Every structure is written in structure tokens, then in C-alpha cells.
Write a sequence for this structure.
């Protein structure tokens, strides 16, 4: 992933998309996408834990708190990356631990 802000700064200096691509070792398409002002300056992954996927994971964990990510994937019909799902499950578990009263 290339730094969109850096690409935009080079363009502001008057460099062409081809020159920027050559200097960064990127493709012209990557540079053009970075220069698209309708896109954010930096890449951000969707917050899966805050959306419907997070709600599904929380529902499964409410019933089965120790279930591993592979079991959760099966129960919610997850088709994405297991690495991503493990990250989201770990994030939700950490939030749950923080909210738990010390006893």
C-alpha cells in the first residue's frame, strides 16, 4: 500500500502520474487512484467489529464464550479471510474483558 498523501504531494510539485509511479515503483493505476480526490488520504479497513459481522460474532460468543474463530466462521457463514476474522474476534473478546467488572 502506497502513502496517498505522499503521492498527492509529489503531484502538487508538478510531477506526472508516470514520473510518480516510476519513482515509487508503483503502477500508474495506483498513482491515479491515489490522486482521486473522492478517496480518503489514507487507507482504512472497515470496522467489522462495529457492524453486522460484529453483532453476529457477539451473539455466538454469548452462547459459546470459548469458541474458536474457525467455529465462529462456520456459524456465521464467514467467507472472508480467517486472519481477518481472528483479528475481529480478538478485538471483540478484548472489549468484553475490558467491560467485565473485576470480581
Amino acid at each position: 500500500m502506497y502513502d496517498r498523501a505522499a503521492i498527492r504531494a509529489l503531484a502538487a510539485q508538478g510531477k506526472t502520474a508516470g514520473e510518480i509511479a516510476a519513482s515509487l515503483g508503483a503502477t500508474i493505476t495506483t498513482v491515479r487512484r491515489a490522486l482521486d480526490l473522492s478517496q480518503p488520504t489514507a487507507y482504512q479497513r472497515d470496522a467489522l467489529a462495529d457492524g453486522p459481522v460484529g453483532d453476529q460474532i457477539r451473539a455466538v460468543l454469548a452462547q459459546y464464550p470459548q469458541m474458536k474463530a474457525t467455529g465462529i466462521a462456520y456459524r456465521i457463514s464467514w467467507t472472508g479471510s480467517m486472519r481477518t476474522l481472528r483479528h475481529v474476534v480478538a478485538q471483540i473478546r478484548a472489549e468484553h474483558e475490558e467491560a467485565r467488572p473485576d470480581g
Summary: The longest helix spans residues 82-99.
